[in-house]
What we know:
It comes from Actomonas aquatica. By secondary structure, this protein is α+β, with helices and mostly antiparallel strands.
Amino acid sequence: MPAATPVEADESEARGVFARLGPKGSFMGIRLSPETVLQFYFNLDATVHAEVLKEEEMETRSTTVTVPLGELLIEAVYHGEDLEQKIAFSRVSWTDEKLRRRPIQSPEPTSTAAPRRRSRLS
């Protein structure tokens, strides 16, 4: 399902989606609040990149986890638990990153007039 078409899901459904994801570009996101998303990206080595994205601030806090730790993060979301505390026993390290906003690019101006000829200077 495209990321642009999110669906409501309970914990069991979210776990089911997570279980069906594979390592070739798979992605899953769980909205934690109107401006915060927990995202999972599956890596080719069967680990999972877990990332909390704060959309308004354009900041992320991320780590690499195993599939069982990813399942614990999903459990934490649905039980109102702190994500980092839920998997603290695993001693994973978290990385903070400030994302850069991409400038909005205007489309190239178009013209229906014939191009002007230019003289070649020597």
